[in-house]
Amino acid sequence: ENLYYCGRLRLSHIKNKQIIKKKIENILIQVGLYEKRNLVVGTVLDKKLSGGERKRLNIALELLSDPIIVVLDEPTSGLSSKDSEKIIDMLNELKDQGKMIIATIHQPNPDMMQQFDKLLLMDNNGTEVFFGSTNEVFDYFDDELENMVYGKDKLLRKKKLKMAEYLFDVLQYPLLDSAGNPIYKQNPEDADIFEEQRQYSPEYWKTKFKKYQIYELITTTDKKQQEYNDDSEREKKKFSHRKLNFKENCIQFYYLLLRNVKNKLRNPSNLYVTFLAAPLLAIIVAFILRYSVADTPYTFAQNVNIKIFIFISVIIFIFLGLSNSLDEIIAEKRIILRENKMNIKSSLYLLTKNITLCVFALIQAMLYYVIAAFILEIRGMWFSYISYLLLSAIIGFSLGLLASSLIKDKKAIINVLPLVLIPQIIFGGAVIEFEKMNQNFKLNPENVIPEVVQIIPSRWLFEGLFVSQAKLNPYSKGLRKLNQKAEKLHQERKNFQIRSKEFRQIRKQIAEAKTDIIRKYPREKYVNNNIDTAVNYMDGKFYNNHRNFFLASKKSVMGWQCNTYNLSV
Fold first, then answer.
1. Which residues of 122-146 are buried (b: 16+ CB within 10 A; e: fewer)?
2. Alpha carbons 375 and 326: distance in angstroms, whole number
3. Gyration radius from the chain CA atoms
4. Does 564 lie in the same domain as 492?
5. Which of 40, 116, 356, 485 has the fewest CB atoms nearer than 10 Å to its CB?
6. Final residue of a domain: which of 404, 433, 456?
7. Which residues is 523 bridged to in the sheet?
8. Residue spans of alpha helices (H) in 455-499
9. Are the C-beta atoms of 155 and 170 separated by less than 8 Å?
10. In terms of domains, do 288 and 358 share one?
């Protein structure tokens, strides 16, 4: 599955799935993982594949794009001798297929070392000591070996056995006094530390290697150099990334999305928490806020806590969005870096993350609203609540993805939660009234709302949903439309645009429609008195002062009047 999705992303120009599946089977056989093709890779703590098998899988992922050059950083590090030999044998097979293998490796055994055609030996700080065949390297240090007195027999045995240790022993051969004891020198930065001195410094090896290079250069003919240059130009063309067409981008997008969804669904514990959190919070919050006066039945109209429910719901969904996304990018940074090099657009990766999180947030919003609305008896507000709760979650996971891409430490990223949530609570407009905030907080003292509050998402989300509850419930919305129709009718009558008989007939129809709305949508079941009064009061201030007020149903933007719930979105 790892190989399949990687193949669909990298080889989006290949339309036939069977070709890719056959290619994957061949690669799995090649790296010796065909028998374990259906095993889950697992995590570092929950391993399903051994360390050597995981490394072979990583190599298999790179082989999908049929590279000419394969670069590996310590492919045998941390592996048993048997696993190390398997890795080297596999690399040797790749070499026989015409691929160039470049690998860093530390102290390989003689058999492993002899499988490399060329060797680049390096000293401290990346100083080049030798570059050539693995056979030549052992004779390269003969001059230095002649000058070594102590431990020479041991070095000769290692040289004869062609052990990698011989090379490092020569490089780091200590500087000895006449008695054969190592000479130490005080560290200039720390007087308590004494460092063993070397007979041959990195600068010595650097100078020797330069002389060796000059000799090799003189013996190389101009013709061979020209052939090398021509081959290099041809190879460069193979490495240039081809621009993907629209269809190939769509294929990449589809498989990135599919992979992302499968990764989410494959973690059952995280999945349960994700989908249980919303309904559990809905039960707790709605049950606590279901208020009624003592000895009277509960009614939605008289519940003074609905405004608090709206604000808490907004904060909850910002929090859920954050918690769902904080580790999304930081956990996959290695994959992102690898796929970026393979011409897979990071913009498509980010888009699929947003879509997946958006779908999960939508499910959470529906679960939350259904339960909370049942307990609090909220009716006819499905679309408004779901929309604003979804927007709250989008704000949350957008900030979470941003933090996940900027912060490198997984432990530090949890500190983002209070940094995001506390300003949302303080400046949301429900906990502290804007008029009662420190006046020095405002750039313009005449502004009702401090300027910094305008960039706080919870302020817009709370106001938008609050006003929606007052103006978009079926009772208020239906009567408002009929009142507008009646007002237009009276204007036409005043301007003699309609006959008296037709006027009376339409007025009667409007009156009947109002009666139907009042009967179908009883006010006490659809209108919350507290919210309705607050919005109507702010509307009065808006029309009387010709200024924008928090929780007014209308806003004036550059001389244009618009509905608050639309502007908030």
1. ebeeebbbbbbebeebbebbeebbe
2. 31
3. 37
4. yes
5. 40
6. 456
7. none
8. 457-471, 474-494
9. yes
10. yes
Give the end of a domain, one of 208, 239, 270: 239
Q: Tell me: the pLDDT tens digits for 115-133?
A: 888 999 998 888 899 998 8
**pLDDT over 90 at 262, yes or no:** no
Helix (H) or strand (E) holding 350: helix 346-376
Whole-model pTM? 0.71
Cβ atoms of 174 and 183 within 8 Å: the answer is: yes
**CA–CA distances in Å: residue 274 to residues 270, 322, 325, 350, 424:** 6, 12, 11, 20, 22
410 touches 443 (CB < 8 A): no
Asked whether residue 229 is domain-assigned, the answer is yes
- With respect to residue 463, please indicate whether it lies within any of the assigned structural domains: no
Inform me whether the pLDDT recorded for 110 exceeds 90.
no
- Convert the pLDDT of each residue in 469-512 to its tens digit: 999 999 999 999 999 999 998 888 888 888 888 888 989 999 99
| 389 in Cβ contact with 368 (< 8 Å) | yes
Domain membership of residue 50 as a residue range: 1-90
In a domain, residue 555? The reply is yes
Are residue 444 and residue 486 in the same domain, yes or no? no
Shared domain check, 281 and 153 = no
Reduced to 3 states (helix: H, G, I; strand: E, B; else coil), residue 131 is: strand
439 and 294, same structural domain? yes
444 and 472 housed in the same domain = no
333 and 204 share a domain?
Answer: no
Extract the tokens encoding 150.
């102590």
Q: Distance between the two ends of the chain, CA-based, in angstroms? A: 40
Token digits for 289? Answer: 């806020």
Both structure tokens of 362: 């939508």
For residue 107, give every residue at least 6 positions away whose Cβ sits within 8 Å of its Cβ, in sequence order, or none: 164, 165, 168
State the greatest distance between any 2 C-alpha atoms of the chain, in Å, as a whole number.
Answer: 129
Q: Is beta strand 128-133 parallel, antiparallel or unpaired with respect to 118-122?
A: antiparallel
List Cβ neighbours of 193 (8 Å cut-off, separation of 6 or more).
186, 187
What is the total count of domains within the chain?
4
